[in-house]
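step: validate -> pass
step: tokenize input -> pass
step: predict -> running
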Amino acid sequence: IMTLSDLKEMAAGGIYDHLGGGFHRYATDAQWLIPHFEKMLYDQALLSKVYLQAYQITKQERYARIATEIFDYILRDMTDPAGGFYSAEDADSEGREGTFYLWDPRQTASVLDEEQTRLFDAIYGVTNEGNFEKGKTILNIKTSIKQLEDEFQKDWTAIESILRTARNRLFKERAKRIRPHRDEKIITAWNGLMISSLAYGGAVLEDEKYIEAARRSAEFILSTLHKNGRLMRYYRDGRVVEKAFL
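step: predict -> pass
step: emit ->
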């Protein structure tokens, strides 16, 4: 029960990317609101598998959804054309930490219609005061389904349909921003973790594309980083590196 509660709170907090999927590296406060905004491949691999296991135990779709969003983030933003998985995305963009992920009411209203704005700002805590620097908001969920249904006089199915459209629009708008730097090292050990999670996820979710992504990464590692009977540490810019990369 404690683990399931932790998983729910993590997925609701600012440590999770509610628009693009995936977890930030860690939180800097006790509420898991303010993250260090860096995203690491190994976190996605380990957490996606835990959420899948929670889904298998509880049969609650919320856990499967988080795992799916993590996988889709990896396939969309962290996969090399040759099949390997990149190691990380930085926390900073435009010279400040978290800029890529932050919102204020003016920004959401400029993209969404009035109903979408009211719902999105309500559930994700977007206010004029903000919860971070300079009136900006780190998206997080503090409002219950029941509270939203009572406030907006709609059932959850209708609310979630509106929110899904709002998230998609804001995700497309966010894509116009300057992204954090991506570290394109393909680290053998971290790819092993992600291969395992994707293969597991493909089986649990019955989705072949995740199994195919795991297969392509494994083939890349074995064909590129397996030298003289041993696995090298990482690949970057056409170069295989054996020595430690720290």
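step: describe -> The first strand starts at residue 26 and ends at 27.
step: cleanup -> pass
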